[in-house]
């Protein structure tokens, strides 16, 4: 017929509308291979590199890189959706050489190729950069440790700094042996404490 697949040698040829369908015993299409439209499998799990797939798609490979997704654009994303999130509201992928996480159609987090992490910003200038309010909630472990947040430097006498829009408001320098609180004019210390 006009849509018959013929086997010859080691290949299959399809004519007509270029579709080759598979039906179950009830006559329902469970799979379709198309050269010019949509191909689909709708009859169980699909396995690549395995004969016992336990998920709708199971990929098993002998290398640490088991799959590759490549776009011809400068951005490439994988979409996650369920009965609540539709379309491409939740996406993870790449923008150039950066790893990007998007929710509700907008980028929310980025890891740059240099290793900087940004939340609310697309250009993090330090190992961790955020634009917005940060909240830390203490739990029992923090209570038992005696603090709810810890910031430290392991590189010499570098300062621990808290900075406002106008300048530094808190400095802990010389391995923490001196502390400066600055209010108002960022160049005039309001309180200075040292180990002596």
N-to-C SSE string, H for helix and E for strand: EEEEEEEEEEEEEHEEEE
Q: Distance between termini? A: 97 Å
Mean pLDDT: 79
Number of helices: 1
Shape: elongated
Q: Kindly estimate the percentage of residues that lie in beta strands according to DSSP.
A: 35-45%
Spatial order of the strands forming the largest sheet: 8-9-10-11-12-13
The unreliable regions are none
Structural class: mainly beta
Number of strands: 17
Sheet with the most strands? 6 strands, mixed
Helix content: under 10%
Explain the layout of strands and helices:
Elements: E1 5-8, E2 11-14, E3 19-23, E4 29-34, E5 40-41, E6 46-48, E7 57-59, E8 75-80, E9 90-95, E10 98-103, E11 106-111, E12 117-119, E13 128-130, H1 140-145, E14 160-163, E15 168-173, E16 178-182, E17 189-194
Parallel strand pairs: 6-7, 12-13
Antiparallel strand pairs: 1-2, 3-4, 4-5, 8-9, 9-10, 10-11, 11-12, 14-15, 15-16, 16-17
Report on this structure.
This protein is 3% helix and 40% strand. The protein is mostly beta strands and 196 residues long. The strands form five sheets. The chain has a six-stranded mixed sheet with strand order 8-9-10-11-12-13, with no helix packed on it. A four-stranded antiparallel sheet has the order 14-15-16-17, with no helix packed on it. The mean pLDDT is 79.
């Amino acid at each position: 017929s006009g849509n018959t697949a013929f086997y010859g040698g080691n290949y299959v040829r399809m004519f007509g509308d270029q579709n080759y369908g598979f039906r179950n015993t009830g006559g329902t299409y469970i799979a379709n291979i198309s050269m010019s439209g949509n191909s689909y499998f709708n009859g169980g799990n699909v396995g690549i590199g395995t004969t016992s797939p336990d998920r709708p798609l199971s990929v098993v490979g002998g290398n640490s890189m088991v799959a590759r997704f490549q776009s011809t654009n400068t951005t490439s994303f994988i979409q996650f959706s369920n009965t609540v999130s539709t379309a491409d509201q939740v996406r993870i992928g790449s923008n150039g050489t950066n790893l990007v996480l998007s929710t509700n159609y907008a980028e929310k987090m980025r890891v740059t190729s240099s290793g900087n992490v940004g939340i609310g910003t697309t250009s993090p200038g330090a190992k961790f950069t955020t634009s917005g309010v940060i909240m830390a909630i203490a739990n029992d472990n923090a209570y038992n440790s005696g603090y709810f947040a810890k910031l430290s430097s392991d590189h010499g006498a570098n300062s621990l700094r808290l900075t406002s829009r106008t300048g530094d408001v808190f400095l802990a320098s010389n391995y923490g042996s001196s502390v400066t609180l600055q209010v108002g004019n960022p160049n005039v210390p309001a309180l200075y404490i040292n180990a002596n």
